[in-house]
Amino acid sequence: MTKKPLQPLLDAREYDPFHVLGLHRDGSGWVLRAFLPYATEVAVEWRIGKIESLQRVNAAGIFEWRGTLSVDNSAYVLHVVEDGITRRRHDAYAFPPQPPAEDLYLFNEGRNCQAYRLLGAAPEMRGSEASDWIGGVRFRVWAPNAERVSVVGVFNRWDGRVHQMASLGASGVWELFIPHLVAGDLYKFEIRNRQSGAIAVKADPYARCFEQRPATAACVSDGAAYAWGDGTWIGRRAMRDWLHAPMSIYEVHAGSWMRHVDGSFYSYRELAERLIPYVCDLGYTHVEFMPLMEHPLDESWGYQCTGHFAPTSRFGTADDLRYLINACHQVGLGVILDWVPGHFPTDAFALAHFDGSPLYEHADPRLKLQPDWGTYVFNFGRNEVRSFLLSSAHYWLAEFHADGLRVDAVASMLYLDYSRKPGEWLPNRHGGRENLEAIQFLQELNAMVHREFPGALTIAEESTSWPMVSRPVHLGGLGFSMKWNMGWMNDTLDYIENDPVHRRYHHDRLTFGQLYAYTENFVLPLSHDEVVHGKRSLLGKMPGDDWQRFANLRLLLAYQYGMPGKKLGFMGSEIAAPHEWRSSEELPWRLLAYPAHTGMQRLMRDLNRLHAQVPALHELDFSPDGFSWIDCHDSDQSVVSWLRFARDGSCVAIVCNFTPVPRHGYRIGVPGTGVWRELLNTDSEYFGGGNLGNGSGLNTEAQPWMQRPALLTLTVPPLAVVFLTPA
């Protein structure tokens, strides 16, 4: 072979190293060529046991053997001397690529939702005969604008010349099998751009684990099958109608729920030991974890994701996370994972300009940049990017048995002008502001999840009035199971932050939500976003003295549970945390030594119990048949009252007093005569209240009132909620 064909290899610019390396016929004979820059001597051991030397033919480290050879004896092993040590190793270039044509086709079409099985690093056995099979790791990466891609790691001194990958043609995918590598080996991809010649060292987009921050190398995962014990749960999940079932979600930041005395994180397994009993005791149906995908910066809370297929190593291994989820399922607790497909960070080691060009992101800055977070927007119109994101969602549901995905910042995906000034965004092909490609992706995502994972949920954090977010794709909707009701959250918090004397002037904040409450399948959130960045904790938002503040918070939480919609609360609200959430420290558990805080915890336990046990409080969350105002006009007294109904017609009356003045002899209309009793009263001394209430029961009067057949006269405690039902 002449010098010219070798030059791209020597320059680390070779797109087909198998053309020049490994064993090849050469006229009537054979040539074996290896590129080993750090070797001083190289020999080949043939299958028959014969050992022959390779000659150095280039100072950079090209070694060759030439001779005659029987095809039957063509299997070989190299003996390589480096740093005075002889190592016996198989040649990576003795194992040509094995591209799965159909999987590549679907990937390029944007329809491969299991691309994590196609790309990334996977331990494999390679060989033509059982006796010749050896273990190693198969690497594949998508880099269509690369001139050359290499696998680099400690095993090759991070030298991109040593393990140059083979291009799989028009697919844009590169492949190489490296013998002897095992699970735990660290690696990256070194990529040379075809146009600029710029070289970048990148983390694997499909890596299943990473070394701990601040290091950023991917780690080969063994892919061993975890012994799940949640088959019963998964079977029941597929049959359960969550739209009509009780659902209360405890939102958790794993790094700050609880920590060790020295400030270190709890592991996934330690969370299983401490978090699960706690959440179950409080009666929540689900725990929702803020992003557990790998991310470099603790302060991003996981929303600046760089490992879309990798649980963060902060808390342990992938199997440790599986252990946590499995343990949740075994006690009947669902798990929702926060998932971020809308944007990704600009870190140089990650997805940004992955192959030296805009690949996962747009090239045009009017489409590329997300100004709110200093991140890049995924190019949802690119087929391979859609395969990437669909596969990420599939991975967390399939490999970790997650029961749902809460999709972050959906509004930022839907609008091309989201947080952009005029002239800073590019209209769609119709001249509009809608991101048509993102809409299509979200529809494909939801269709895939509901098709592949019966009973799994997708929940949209969508802050605008975009129509039909939680309506089926075939009807023109986005296809989400549910949507966060940001309007309810903002209106409610805006209202309750007012001093009670002024609430009468903002009464519409409590009532307006019913005008649109059934346009979507709503979750009522009191989330982490409302207790950070100067917004104060929920307790800190409450006006008045200590008594009023705690009473207001009890009122807020009970009001949430009385309104139609599934429930979500952020960790710490159940113990009335006095300060904003701080991601760098654990919740103030010491406060449970004080009655006011334990009372709040008891209230949450009883609210969840009531929510689960009383069908009227959950069965018709998404139907106007499940709700009817009793009186929504009593702004002068800042009192609202309504009825909740079950499918069998049973009902609960809920009366809320948003002033510190008790309402004695307060009259409401109810559906029937007889005795009514309190189901829950937030002013109970058990919760830390003043214990003003209605005793063992209340008798109605057979007198029409408020267009209902019976009159009920009761006492409504100050800053309190009373739940009533026929005895």
Protein described:
- The N and C termini lie far apart (95 Å).
- The protein is 21% helix and 26% strand.
- The radius of gyration is 31 Å and the shape is elongated.
- By secondary structure, it is an alpha+beta fold.
- The longest helix is centred in the C-terminal third of the chain and has 19 residues, at 595-613.
- It has 14 helices and 36 strands.
- It folds into 4 domains: 3-92, Immunoglobulin-like; 101-219, Immunoglobulin-like (Sandwich), CATH 2.60.40.10; 243-616, Glycosidases (TIM Barrel), CATH 3.20.20; 622-726, Immunoglobulin-like, CATH 2.60.40.
- α4 packs parallel to α5 (318-330) and α13 (546-562) packs parallel to α14.
- It has an 8-stranded parallel beta barrel, surrounded by 4 helices. It has a 7-stranded antiparallel beta sheet with strand order 1-2-5-4-3-6-7, with no helix packed on it. The chain has a 6-stranded antiparallel beta sheet with strand order 29-30-31-36-33-34.
